[in-house]
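User: Run a structure prediction on this.
Assistant: Running it now.
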Amino acid sequence: MINYISGTSAYASDVGITDHFNFFKKLPKKIKGVNFMKKLESRLWVTVVLFICGYAVISVIYLFYVEEKLLSEKRSSLFPALDVLYHIVKDIYDAKDTSYVSERDAQQHVIRIVRETRYGLAGYFWISDMNGVMLMNPVQEELNGKDLSEHKDPTGRKIFSELVQIAKERNEGFVEYKWIRPKEKKAVKKLSYVRAFEPWGWVVGSDIYLDDVESYVRGIALRMSLYGLAVFSLVFFAGYLITGRIRKILRLAGPISEKLKKDG
């Protein structure tokens, strides 16, 4: 028995695993051998995979949250702006009889206001009738006077028909769609808010482009991807080192465990 211990210790010393040998001698019988180490290695990789999946899920949820928050801010900016125009139109309509102004002149006055009014960085208003004929679009004047009820966005949606339908059925509402920005060939997301002005059979609306939201969200996604790649690299490297150590122990533990079993 003394020769065996001495020989084994010499063997362990030669390969640098004396500590591993002593570790296995102290283990309870139910966890001696390679099974315990294999389970430990498997659980380690399961933990790594769960960490990666968790990070990915949290990132996606966060990006959806950021996008929805920005879109909500965009909607909030459209509502009060159009509300101001709506009440201007209403005031002019209410005052036309007492100011001895014809209905046509009152309408033309509103159209001039819409043509000249801007708000924010690129906000503007437009007016169409309930049939989809554009009465005034100050940024794309080539649309003025045209029936846009069959006009389609790059995805094939009849946008103005949808806008008019919302105004007729719900009086007001938002629509998000694709639109080619003037003087550009690329279609970008756009958000419109419309409200019906029933006395004149009008739809008053305001638009805002959403490409800045898309760019901001893409930037966050890129940064999160880079952070995730760095973290994943560290986790994989740590996992590789630890599992490499475990495999080394497994290779050396086999013969040692067998000898320990024979010694009882």
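Helices lie at 2-15, 18-26, 34-95, 103-116, 159-170, 211-262.
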